[in-house]
């Protein structure tokens, strides 16, 4: 330790811990988390933000009205975005009150929540490993993970952030060192889980995450068994009763269709194996994933092999920590697997909570290294932080503008019709009509009946004054959802008589408020390149 005498006292010794050291460590983690995604504060609204934030007029209602509507299901009948996730609606309501439609304020709120979540990961790692080195390693690893760009830099995906906050806070309380009077702790844990459920359905996995982490450290007897098992059943029953009651009034979450349950099962096995890798290595990020083909039967023996590895670890007491963290990576994204048929089979946000496992592995490694190599431990954590921040800036920049988003989406997923159709829309808005036509046709070459691609092609032809060509495209459109029907009504209105209707103006009036286009010439150059190489 003499070699690090020049360091501040709280950094010099990585053994033992005090409240002061925890406060300083938490502050450091919060600062680096904020720095990692600080550029997002200067971004505008993007993608589904136009629907959930900018165009969400229900946020102008009073908070009491929104809460009553959420409880009764009226918000679903209104068609309010994220009506089945009321905690998200309340969060956006406060943003509307404080910042109006200023995108910077909304992004600042998300950034503050992300910094808070990183601090909670820091505290959870301390509760599990009772080591400041482990806490610092886990907190920093989570704070600078590039995989988090989608959740941290896009206001619409704050729901994942809110759900993770509830789950990680509950886990931190669950494993925190016990005190004499613990009568209120189980109720706080249950309350935090209920809050997470009201943020997003994916929080249903919280009890499984706590069970997995119990292999890392046994929770205090004062919180288990006690009231918690019964309370878990009560909270789950209350939420499920409300959620299914609301779903009868209308369901906002689009779902995929599969030929059989066997196909769902194979796709779920494939998803879990992919999720394990993405959760444990949260360093790559993609804004778009093309639809996957049906899963091959060879994924099944791969899944059985994984179960064999987990069973082997379970038989070795010294490997229980490793087993617990692997299980966290597997169960955290479970609600997003094909069994529940999300319309997007893969998305970075699905592994946001699962990346907690990677952070805890880093913390565990820092805990093991710090005794003999304290200086090396600090150096590695510093290098990880610097490299992570640079990678996070790059990952977040994808969400800076529509130009960046959809050119990056096509580049990362050239077989995605959604990416090409969305790029076509951006090109049309920018006035690059010829390129807009070509990219819409590319979307339909991949999937001829892709409704958003057909709508994009029709709008492109209307934008150039080709009303008859647009009508031919419209005649072939068969909408498959309420969103498709709304889009079809829009394009039919612009294509319909009277003959003196200003078609170009009609099309242009449907550009979302607050649309952040980006550099038009850069868009042209990128689109031409993508059409040439993809």
What is the topological layout?
Elements: H1 9-12, H2 19-36, H3 49-54, H4 63-72, H5 74-78, H6 86-99, H7 103-129, H8 132-143, H9 149-153, H10 158-175, H11 185-199, H12 206-213, H13 228-249, H14 261-280, H15 299-314, H16 320-331, H17 355-369, H18 374-397, H19 402-412, H20 417-430, H21 433-446, H22 451-463, H23 467-475, H24 482-495, H25 503-508, H26 520-533
Helix pairs in contact: 2-7, 2-8, 2-18, 4-6, 6-7, 7-8, 7-10, 8-17, 8-18, 10-11, 11-13, 12-16, 14-15, 14-16, 16-17, 19-20, 19-26, 20-21, 20-22, 21-22, 22-23, 22-24, 23-24
How would you concisely characterize the structure shown here?
The chain has helices at 9-12, 19-36, 49-54, 63-72, 74-78, 86-99, 103-129, 132-143, 149-153, 158-175, 185-199, 206-213, 228-249, 261-280, 299-314, 320-331, 355-369, 374-397, 402-412, 417-430, 433-446, 451-463, 467-475, 482-495, 503-508, 520-533.
Question: Which tags fit this structure?
Answer:
534 residues, mainly alpha, Serine Threonine Protein Phosphatase 5, Tetratricopeptide repeat, 2 domains, 26 helices, 65% helix, 0% strand, disordered N terminus
């Amino acid at each position: 330790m003499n070699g690090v005498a020049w360091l501040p006292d709280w950094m010099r010794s990585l053994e033992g811990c005090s409240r002061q050291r925890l406060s300083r460590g938490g502050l450091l983690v919060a600062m680096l988390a904020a720095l990692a995604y600080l550029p997002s504060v200067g971004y505008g609204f993007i993608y589904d933000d136009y629907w959930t934030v900018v165009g969400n007029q229900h946020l102008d209602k009073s908070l009491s009205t929104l809460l009553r509507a959420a409880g009764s299901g009226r918000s679903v009948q209104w068609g309010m975005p994220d009506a089945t996730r009321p905690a998200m609606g309340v969060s956006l309501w406060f943003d509307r009150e404080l910042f109006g439609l200023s995108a910077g304020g909304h992004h600042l709120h998300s950034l503050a929540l992300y910094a808070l979540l990183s601090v909670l990961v820091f505290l959870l790692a301390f509760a599990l490993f009772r080591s400041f080195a482990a806490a610092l390693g886990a907190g920093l690893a989570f704070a600078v993970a590039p995989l988090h760009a989608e959740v941290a830099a896009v206001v619409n995906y704050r729901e994942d952030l809110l759900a993770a906050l509830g789950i990680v806070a509950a886990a931190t309380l669950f494993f925190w060192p016990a005190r004499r009077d613990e009568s209120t702790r189980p109720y706080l844990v249950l309350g935090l889980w209920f809050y997470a459920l009201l943020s997003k359905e994916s929080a249903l996995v919280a009890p499984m995450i706590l069970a997995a982490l119990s292999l890392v450290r046994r929770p205090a007897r004062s919180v288990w068994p006690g009231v918690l098992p019964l309370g878990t059943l009560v909270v789950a029953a209350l939420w499920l009763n409300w959620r299914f009651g609301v779903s009868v009034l209308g369901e906002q979450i689009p779902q995929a269709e599969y030929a059989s349950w066997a196909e769902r099962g194979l796709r779920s096995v494939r998803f879990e194996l992919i999720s394990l890798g993405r959760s444990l290595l949260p360093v790559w990020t993609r804004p778009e994933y093309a639809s996957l083909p049906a899963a091959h039967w060879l994924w099944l023996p791969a899944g059985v092999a994984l179960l064999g590895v987990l069973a082997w670890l379970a038989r070795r007491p010294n490997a229980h920590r490793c087993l617990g963290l692997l299980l966290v990576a597997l169960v955290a994204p479970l609600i997003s697997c094909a069994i529940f048929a999300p319309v997007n089979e893969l998305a970075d946000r699905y592994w946001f909570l699962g990346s907690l496992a990677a952070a805890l592995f880093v913390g565990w490694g820092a805990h093991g290294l710090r005794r003999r190599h304290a200086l090396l431990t600090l150096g590695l954590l510093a290098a990880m932080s610097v490299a992570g921040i640079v990678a996070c800036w790059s990952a977040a920049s994808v969400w800076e503008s529509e130009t960046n988003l959809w050119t990056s989406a096509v580049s990362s997923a050239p077989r995605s019709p959604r990416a090409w159709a969305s790029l076509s829309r951006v090109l049309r808005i920018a006035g690059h009509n010829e390129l807009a036509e070509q990219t819409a046709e590319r979307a339909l070459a991949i999937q001829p009946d892709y409704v958003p691609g057909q709508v994009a092609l029709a709008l492109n032809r209307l934008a150039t004054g080709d009303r008859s060509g647009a009508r031919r495209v419209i005649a072939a459109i068969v909408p498959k959802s309420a969103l498709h029907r709304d889009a079809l009504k829009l394009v039919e209105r612009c294509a319909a008589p009277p003959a003196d209707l200003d078609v170009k103006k009609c099309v242009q009036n449907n550009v979302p408020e607050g649309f952040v286009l980006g550099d038009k010439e850069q868009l042209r150059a990128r689109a031409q390149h993508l059409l040439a190489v993809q």
